[in-house]
Design brief:
mainly beta, Jelly Rolls, 0% helix, 4-stranded antiparallel beta sheet, 90 residues
């Protein structure tokens, strides 16, 4: 069974504090003005950066299906208007 986290603000969040699988990222509504979504392998921003997504270009699904061995942390810096995104993981 997959789990998910929906975010629609410029924020940082621990998605999982233990190993997990990033299944997909869904951009539900585009961000604006250089807004990005950063995904880290780890439970904090000092983890390994595995994805940096420009949320201003398009809506839709980005499939990953990758193992994150130390948990998952996401960061949407306070730049531009935040996108509405859903993180799907297992």
């Amino acid at each position: 069974m997959n789990s998910y986290l929906r975010i629609n603000t410029n924020t940082s969040a621990v998605v999982s504090s233990v190993a997990c699988v990033l299944k997909r990222i869904v951009i539900n509504k585009k961000g604006a003005s250089s807004n990005v979504l950063n995904v880290y392998d780890g439970a904090a921003i000092n983890g390994t950066l595995v994805a940096s997504i420009d949320t201003t270009t398009a809506v839709g699904d980005i499939e990953y299906d990758i193992a994150l061995n130390r948990g998952m942390f996401i960061n949407i810096p306070n730049v531009g208007t935040a996108a509405d995104v859903t993180i799907v993981y297992k």
